[in-house]
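ok so i was messing around last nite and threw this chain in just to see what happens. nothing serious, just curious
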Amino acid sequence: MNSQPPNYAARYAEHFAMERRDGVLLLRMHTGGGPAVMSLALHRAWGDVLREVGADPDNEVLVLTGTGDAWTGGLDPALRDRSPAQRSEDRYDLYREGIALLRSLVFSVDVPTIGALNGPGYHQELALACDLTLCTPGTAFDDTHFRSGAVPGDGQHLVFQELLGLKRAARLLYSGAGVTAAEALELGLVNEVVPGERLLPRAWELAAEIMAAPRSTRRLTHAVVQRPWQRRLVDDLAFGRTHHLLNT
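result:
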């Protein structure tokens, strides 16, 4: 088994741990080795790392996951407690980097993708927009922006609309109610619910199944699977992000 990290792994080590086995890259976000804390730096790093991963011809399947029992483990106080002046100053960067989160995954990564959600947290849309998505029983899904006085337009809303349909998505966005892992499986948000200790082994298994196909078949099937996401992002991502930032 060839298990060497990419040569750019050290550049992103503050936010991501990387492991590559025979062409399958596991990209695990973290903060200090524990659950990732959502910060401006992590927000920015996601777009950068996905573009670099996508440009690396040695990557044949990508697995995204978090650390511990949370996809993200909270919000950086420096991000939460910004003054109105700081929020205004950061607005363009937040717009550009927020767009890059999903856009880099959908348009820059040309290999099959597997999202392995290890728990609740911010920006689950990254895992939900992967070709295949697994989650643990303790994972919950929600978008609480409207309930907290903000416009739900930073990405999770778009995934809800695409995967759940307009009426279910609208109810979740207005209510802020959560979807359990079992409900997510029934509704089609995820493909499998897997015990925590089996989450990554199962992701590696699925990646191995995909790798059994010829390279061109894998990549072109990914293109077919991702085509609806590309249309959705072109039509709606910037619109939602703009409305979200106008109200924050």
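not much to say yet. The chain has a mean pLDDT of 92.
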